[in-house]
Amino acid sequence: MIKTYKDLEVYQISYKLALIVHQMTEQFPKYETYEIGSQLRRAALSIPLNIAEGYGKKESAKEFKRFLNMTLGSCNEIYVLLDMIKDLEYIEKDKYEELVKSYEMLGKRIYVLMKRWQ
């Protein structure tokens, strides 16, 4: 039974991924702290934040779906940033592939939730 946004699997996954991304960006070169690192942290954090905010407006399925749609945009933003940090060699290939797969899975789950939410 879903009582709060914290009960949503997409929230739980996105929150854990945001923590992973945040910790990972702490290892970036100092000059990237306010550049790619900051952008990546904001994109990752925006997913659980939008899920929580949208769930608070759940009286309107259309409004919640709008917030879920924004989370899909953030997933796409993360893909671009992950490609960038891989190419800049700030992340190992296996960690890159793991994160891409995790965000692909998350995006699919968000999409399914968006389509099924009534």
Structure, described:
This protein is an all-alpha fold and 118 residues long. The protein has helices at residues 9-25, 36-55, 61-87, 93-116. It has one domain: 23S rRNA-intervening sequence (de novo design (two linked rop proteins)), CATH 1.20.1440.60. α1 (9-25) packs antiparallel against α2 (36-55) and α2 packs antiparallel against α3. It is elongated. The model has no long low-confidence stretch (mean pLDDT 94).
Question: Could you list some keywords that capture this structure?
Answer:
single chain; 118 residues; mainly alpha; de novo design (two linked rop proteins); 4 helices; 75% helix; 0% strand; elongated
**Quaternary organisation:** single chain
Report the average pLDDT across residues: 94
SS element count, helices: 4
The rough form would be described as: elongated
Q: Whole-number radius of gyration?
A: 15 Å
| H-E string | HHHH
The amount of beta strand, in percent, is under 5%
Summarize the main sheet: none
In total, how many domains does the architecture comprise? Answer: 1
Looking at CATH, the homologous superfamily is: 23S rRNA-intervening sequence
State the separation between the terminal residues, measured CA to CA: 15 Å
Helix content: over 70%
> What would the CATH topology be?
de novo design (two linked rop proteins)
Unreliable parts? none
Protein structure class: mainly alpha
